[in-house]
């Protein structure tokens, strides 16, 4: 590394180029941003200040951020904001995140001024932190966004302000799918939850953030050219996006957390159980960090798994309607999700199945040779973790943009088979046990299974290549690192 990459300090010493990060709460945002920070530090010789919103922080978050201390990666806790009086129970996810960030960044100007030596080359934020732009403008620090969802959603999001101007009424009532210039169309029933009702705060916050997105200096996105070629090409060359204008889009993915150290007894038991199963024989069933099913859907899922007679690990969370369930039924222990499974299920399936309460070391399980497929809600981090380990997906999308992800994974990318979760009128429907059985068998032992498995293996290789020296995501980040170094 040449001397030109370092800044000379007033005392004559040199220091590495410096960038700061800020992620909104939730592992789904913190993980990809932190993995990007690690790469910039380890592979491109930067130093990073990683700002953390401590309100709402979880133990999982703390453990992850502090697992491997690095001398050039400083974790900077923002002072906890006073949020008493805010009615979080009444807010949906994007509103909640936006309000927490808004309240937490009051001290940002002074925090950034304190960090600004050597001068920050960039401030890298996720999409819910766009409120930082004024502070950064005053301090002349360029803002980069990291879009932690697919390029397909990035394209839709950049198109949203136009759609908002041109369409009257609700997008979900449009007679035709939404056609984004240069891109595949999106069926109205697959539109993300945040844009299904334009009258509520959730939509207004999302629109505000995406409107500010096009004002960033650059947009990182957690994907790579082989995974979403059409969408990335449109973002780069399509006249519509050039006209917005869209800042340069930098695909740097798949950035996912590394295999976590398996620490507690419960996690060791899961890995030990996997060790004695045949190769590719186990279906991991897990629906994300926030993913909860209704009790009816949980019952159908469990009974469908049982009918399929396949090996499985089922991660169970308390159903979303459990408050009512607990209210109407006695004998429920609401802290023990396994109690919500059908009577006798655990006992009947114990030869082939492992039921895990609440949380599994997902990456370690996906990385295990016995894991053959992943029944997932298609959250973007889970999706990337799955394809990175060559594991095909059975999609059971639940919320946010997951229906769109699932559709793309099955119809465009060919690495998934998706359950029919929306009815004719766009309403959410319960997927019955027979359908679950059919799809699980099809993927675990049918012809369709062979296709999605071989596609998953291709993507595993492609993911490894793109992140290695000479690969597209690696080189893209190297190029940005070089641009940032030269930033005065
Ligand atoms: N989202 C987005 N761009 C991003 C990250 C998230 O459009 O870069 C969307 C995401 O698809 C979802 C919503 O914002 O509709 C909430 O994000 P997420 O589900 O990641 O929040 P979490 O459940 O992790 O708190
Ligand atoms: N996760 C995990 N164990 C679980 C459930 C989830 O480790 O039992 C992790 C998973 O590996 C992923 C993240 O939580 O990194 C979930 O992110 P995703 O974007 O898939 O979905 P979200 O939870 O944001 O809806």
Automatic annotation (TrEMBL):
Domain of life: Eukaryota
Name under which the protein is recorded: Uncharacterized protein
């Amino acid at each position: 590394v040449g001397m030109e990459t370092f800044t000379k300090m007033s005392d004559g010493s040199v220091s590495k180029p410096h960038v700061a990060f800020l992620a909104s709460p939730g592992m789904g945002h913190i993980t990809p941003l932190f993995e990007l920070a690690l790469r910039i530090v380890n592979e491109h010789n930067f130093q990073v200040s990683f700002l953390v919103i401590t309100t709402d922080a979880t133990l999982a978050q703390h453990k992850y951020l502090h697992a491997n201390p690095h001398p050039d990666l400083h974790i900077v806790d923002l002072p906890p904001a006073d949020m008493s009086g805010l009615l979080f129970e009444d807010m949906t996810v994007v509103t909640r995140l936006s309000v927490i960030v808004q309240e937490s960044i009051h001290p940002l100007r002074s925090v950034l001024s304190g960090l600004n030596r050597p001068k920050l080359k960039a401030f890298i934020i996720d999409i819910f932190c766009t409120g930082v732009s004024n502070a950064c403008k005053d301090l002349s620090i360029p803002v980069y966004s990291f879009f932690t969802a697919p390029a397909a959603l990035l394209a839709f999001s950049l198109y949203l302000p136009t759609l908002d101007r041109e369409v009257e009424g609700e997008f979900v009532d449009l007679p035709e799918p939404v056609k984004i210039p240069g891109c595949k169309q999106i069926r109205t029933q697959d539109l993300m939850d945040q844009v299904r009702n334009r009258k509520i705060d959730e939509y207004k916050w999302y629109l505000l953030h995406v409107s500010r997105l096009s004002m960033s200096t650059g947009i990182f996105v957690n994907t790579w050219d082989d995974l979403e070629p059409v969408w990335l090409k449109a973002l780069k060359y399509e006249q519509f996006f050039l006209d917005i204008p869209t800042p340069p889009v930098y695909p740097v993915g798949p950035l996912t957390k590394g295999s976590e150290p398996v620490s507690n007894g419960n996690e060791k038991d899961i890995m030990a159980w996997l060790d004695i199963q045949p190769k590719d024989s186990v279906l991991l069933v897990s629906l994300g960090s926030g993913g909860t099913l209704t009790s009816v859907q949980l019952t159908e899922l469990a009974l469908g798994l049982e009918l399929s007679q396949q090996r499985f690990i089922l991660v169970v969370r308390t159903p979303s309607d459990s408050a009512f369930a607990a209210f109407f039924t006695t004998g429920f222990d609401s802290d023990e999700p396994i109690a919500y499974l059908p009577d006798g299920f655990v006992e009947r399936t114990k030869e082939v199945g492992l039921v895990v309460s609440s949380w599994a070391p997902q990456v370690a399980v996906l990385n295990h040779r016995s894991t053959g497929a992943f029944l997932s809600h298609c959250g973007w981090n889970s999706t990337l973790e799955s394809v990175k380990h060559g594991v095909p997906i059975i999609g059971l999308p639940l919320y946010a943009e997951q229906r769109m992800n699932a559709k793309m994974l099955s119809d465009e990318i060919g690495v998934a088979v998706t359950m029919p979760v929306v009815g004719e009128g766009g309403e959410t429907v319960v997927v019955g046990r027979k359908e679950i059985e059919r799809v699980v068998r099809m993927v675990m032992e049918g012809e369709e299974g062979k296709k999605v498995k071989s596609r998953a293996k291709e993507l595993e290789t492609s993911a490894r290549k793109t992140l290695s020296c000479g690969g597209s995501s690696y080189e893209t980040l190297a190029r940005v690192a070089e641009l940032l170094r030269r930033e005065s």
